[in-house]
Write a structure and sequence with these properties.
Layout (H helix, E strand, L loop, with lengths): L5 E7 L20 E2 L5 E7 L5 H4 L7 E3 L1 H8 L11
Antiparallel strand pairs: 1-3, 1-4, 2-3
């Protein structure tokens, strides 16, 4: 739907099994982006449809980000390795 932004949540890896993938864009635990140390992962949802596992407190995100904020985070050394040219 045009005009509706996605929201990104940074979640602790220990909460991965608690994700209801029917409520987020990713389809399963193999499709989430994980930090290089595997301690965190990213999920994405439509900003108007906050997943119930977040609203009910079952999972408390470490961060909630906009698309731009998430892109900037993914470009850090915690999420991306430096590629030598």
């Amino acid at each position: 739907m045009e005009g509706i932004a996605d929201t990104y949540g940074i979640i602790k890896s220990e909460d991965l099994t608690k994700i209801d993938f029917s409520q987020v864009i990713e389809s399963n635990e193999n499709t989430v982006r994980k930090s290089l140390d595997l301690s965190k992962f990213v999920i994405k949802w439509n900003s108007q449809d906050i997943p119930s596992f977040i609203t009910d407190g079952s999972i408390i995100p470490l961060q909630i980000l906009t698309h731009l904020e998430c892109v900037e985070l993914m470009d850090t050394s915690e999420w991306s390795e430096n590629i030598q040219e």
